[in-house]
Amino acid sequence: DAGVIQSPRHEVTEMGQEVTLRCKPISGHNSLFWYRQTMMRGLELLIYFNNNVPIDDSGMPEDRFSAKMPNASFSTLKIQPSEPRDSAVYFCASSPLRGLSQETQYFGPGTRLLVL
Amino acid sequence: GQSLEQPSEVTAVEGAIVQINCTYQTSGFYGLSWYQQHDGGAPTFLSYNALDGLEETGRFSSFLSRSDSYGYLLLQELQMKDSASYFCAVRFRGPLVFGKGTRLSVIA
């Protein structure tokens, strides 16, 4: 099992540019989560999907952020336009939807975003 | 609301035992989880307590007391590689809610 796959691993961009982060969850996992981590705010849940459907996006900072999950094996988080304060590590995680195993989330390696 | 409190930093000596506490201000959650994150890495699952009591996994143990709104992670025979951040987390009807994390530094 390859685990949760994220790309790119590092992204450096200029303010105002569009940034797209990608995630492939573990096969068979029905829940997918996008997190942002910074020193100041810690680990923040941005949005999560169950069976490809967005359930709660209350953590999305503002309209510049959007996320999609067109199928069970792929999700994107888009920032348009990007701002320096968006610089952070963005993690994608997945878990099963049912049973005790849903208590365990498997995190991808993260995308380190720097907006200049 | 849902609130988890952890110490921000803990320092301990190699070979010693350290306890990282987690207190919460809510009830009705499914259980208490612990995650470890090394610098530059991703959070990884360590343990889960569905019921009150102690769960042991090698050098790591985790404890939950719902009546006391309290849990802890116990690390024994500390090794330098245990230096990392440790997060407690609870789940209600939705996704996990994470604490701010405790940064553990193991010194020689």
Q: What does the model show?
A:
The complex is a heterodimer of chains A (116) and B (108). Chain A is mainly beta and 116 residues long. In chain A, 0% of the residues lie in helices and 53% in strands. Chain A is built from no helices and 11 strands. Chain B is mainly beta. Chain B is built from no helices and 11 strands. In chain B, strands 2, 4, 5, 9, 10 and 11 form a 6-stranded mixed sheet that branches. Chain B is globular and about 40 Å long. The interface between A and B is medium-sized, with 20 and 19 residues.
Short description:
By secondary structure, chain A is mainly β. Helices cover about 0% and strands about 55% of the residues of chain A.
* Most extensive interface between two protein chains, with residue counts: A-B, 20 and 19 residues
pLDDT averaged over residues of chain A:
93
Secondary structure tally, helices of chain A: 0
Distance between the termini of chain A: 36 Å
Total E-strand runs of chain A? 11
Shape of chain A: globular
Contiguous helical run count of chain B: 0
Strand content of chain B: over 45%
Low-confidence stretches of chain A: none
Helix content of chain B: under 10%
Question: Keywords for this structure?
Answer:
heterodimer, A: 116 residues, mainly beta, 7-stranded mixed beta sheet, 4-stranded antiparallel beta sheet, 11 strands, B: 108 residues, 6-stranded mixed beta sheet, 5-stranded antiparallel beta sheet, 0% helix, globular
Helices and strands, with pairings:
The complex is a heterodimer of chains A (116) and B (108).
Chain A: E1 5-7, E2 10-13, E3 19-24, E4 31-38, E5 42-50, E6 53-56, E7 65-71, E8 74-79, E9 88-95, E10 106-107, E11 111-115
Parallel strand pairs in A: 2-11
Antiparallel strand pairs in A: 1-3, 3-8, 4-5, 4-9, 5-6, 7-8, 9-10, 9-11
Chain B: E1 4-5, E2 9-13, E3 18-24, E4 32-37, E5 44-49, E6 53-57, E7 60-65, E8 70-75, E9 84-91, E10 96-98, E11 102-107
Parallel strand pairs in B: 2-11
Antiparallel strand pairs in B: 1-3, 3-8, 4-5, 4-9, 6-7, 7-8, 9-10, 9-11
